[in-house]
Amino acid sequence: xxxxxxxxxxxxxxxxxxxxxxxxxxxxxxxxxxxxxxxxxxxxxxxxxxxxxxxxxxxxxxxxxxxxxxxxxxxxxxxxxxxxxxxxxxxxxxxxxxxxxxxxxxxxxxxxxxxxxxxxxxxxxxxxxxxxxxxxxxxxxxxxxxxxxxxxxxxxxxxxxxxxxxxxxxxxxxxxxxxxxxxxxxxxxxxxxxxxxxxxxxxxxxxxxxxxxxxxxxxxxxxxxxxxxxxx
Amino acid sequence: xxxxxxxxxxxxxxxxxxxxxxxxxxxxxxxxxxxxxxxxxxxxxxxxxxxxxxxxxxxxxxxxxxxxxxxxxxxxxxxxxxxxxxxxxxxxxxxxxxxxxxxxxxxxxxxxxxxxxxxxxxxxxxxxxxxxxxxxxxxxxxxxxxxxxxxxxxxxxxxxxxxxxxxxxxxxxxxxxxxxxxxxxxxxxxxxxxxxxxxxxxxxxxxxxxxxxxxxxxxxxxxxxxxxxxxxxxxxxxxxxxxxxxxxxxxxxxxxxxxxxxxxxxxx
Lengths: 232, 268
What we know:
The complex is a heterodimer of chains A (232) and B (268). Chain A is an alpha/beta fold and 232 residues long.
């Protein structure tokens, strides 16, 4: 199986310069790999650094030490030292981040938000529109909302738009942070099915799921972050 | 087992559009900006943030060919040979600024001709570029007014009859009609109402993406920076104290000053 993520000696601490220079250690010496078709679920108590690790994998937080090798277009690239335009290219084509929050952009319709990643990957406009509609329908978003900007949607509706956007064309690597937090049981099951389908198509998945049923349905492997916490 | 079809290799351009090395500008003893270096690639949007007096506008004026820096060089690769914009003749630099570059001023009055019609303001840039066919110029001007959401029946009105937001959109049309490769913007949404800002920001975001523009945007508004830019440089006392991918700098700021800036934002 192709290794999609290889994490090597990653450490993270935060230094709060404006609060007396307090140094908050998060973890140290993190090492693991994730292969295509695997779903690694991060475990550990709240505050253990699960979300921080996920953000580091995405190139959003910068680790204090170590490397993250991402398999991108057939090559391994260290996202920690990559220049911004390379990181953006990796995100566009290889690395997707699914959060529970939608970053609402004024005046952009739900349909356009979901269609956008397809267009960015060169799918033609008609096909992109059809696939986006099918995904919104599958997540039970009422059709009357499709052409509206999600700013006025409920939290659960916004979350489903966000999930539709992430799964309309699942990236080879999916980083997932609490995707089912405010969803009802029916939609939660749709999300679990979408994750399973992405994995079957070969996506490598790293996720955080508080809901135990979801966690067990999704995981092929667990990683307890607590093991990497060092005594401060 | 990977069944993902590899997408075609992205066209990552081999060379930067703009290479900036060691730019400094002093006002007597006082530092305007000091030792700023970076590369900007085609299609990249770079934000320069910092509070007033941090040197960001001084830097922008040096980069855009308006004020000559005391040290350093600005290399532009438009087509063919890289051009050191401060070593070429004044005339050549002006030609470049008219054709390959665009500058969006914070105050639309600095970028518009207030006594010339909206259509004339847009058409003038095309004539500067050498277009002569009146019908085609008017047609393109009209097309651009529509793109910036100015109604067709306002084409013969003068900018002073427009609201501030409309003036700013007109200025953007005037700058983009000549299809520049690189656009400089100084606080493009400064001085506008929040609702007008949102509309303008969305317009800019779409235009920048659709046209594949490279842009350098000076702003003190971190929300504007997050929405519009790929990369950020944070300036303090004339120097760049932190830079990187926009979401990295805003979500995981390392420098004390950047931490102060990001923690001072009120979220709504």
